[in-house]
């Protein structure tokens, strides 16, 4: 990562990889907005407002994963980024799978799973581009 100018809010920018996007050194990980909560415990409107406030404050890297929720977090992030997608670098992950809350989490990095998972993530996120697609540990 190389360091360069700062965002309008004064957050230092860094280049993720040679020729890659410049992002603020402070990103927003969204796992806590969905993971480990039941639908009754989540507050999606507050989470969307938090994502908007982070972007307004100069955060340009938003991170999620298909397993968070499971699947709910990507839908939530997609909702928050509607109309603002071009303001951020969007990162999500693949490779941890579960049948739902309370079920065990398994690993699946098979090419056929990754292919189907990326298509599902694009749908949930409401975008045609994922800037950083990572294999979840």
Q: How is this structure best described in words?
A:
α1 crosses α2. The radius of gyration is 15 Å and the shape is globular. β7 and β8 form a beta hairpin. Helix content is 28%, strand content 23%. The chain is of the alpha/beta class and 137 residues long.
Please give the share of residues in helix: 25-40%
Number of strands: 9
Q: Please identify, by name, the CATH architecture.
A: Alpha-Beta Barrel
Strand order of the largest sheet: 4-5-6-9
**Biggest sheet: strands, sense, closure?**
4 strands, parallel
- Uncertain residue ranges: none
Q: What's the number of structural domains?
A: 1
Global structural class: alpha/beta
Shape: globular
State the CATH class.
Alpha Beta
Query: Which fold name is given in CATH as the topology?
Result: TIM Barrel
Number of helices: 3
Mean pLDDT: 92
- Hey, roughly how much beta strand do the residues contain? 15-25%
Report Rg. Answer: 15 Å
Question: Topology of this structure?
Answer:
Elements: E1 2-6, E2 12-15, E3 22-24, E4 28-29, H1 44-56, E5 61-63, H2 72-81, E6 89-94, E7 96-97, E8 106-107, H3 111-125, E9 132-135
Parallel strand pairs: 4-5, 5-6, 6-9
Antiparallel strand pairs: 1-2, 2-3, 7-8
Helix pairs in contact: 1-2, 2-3
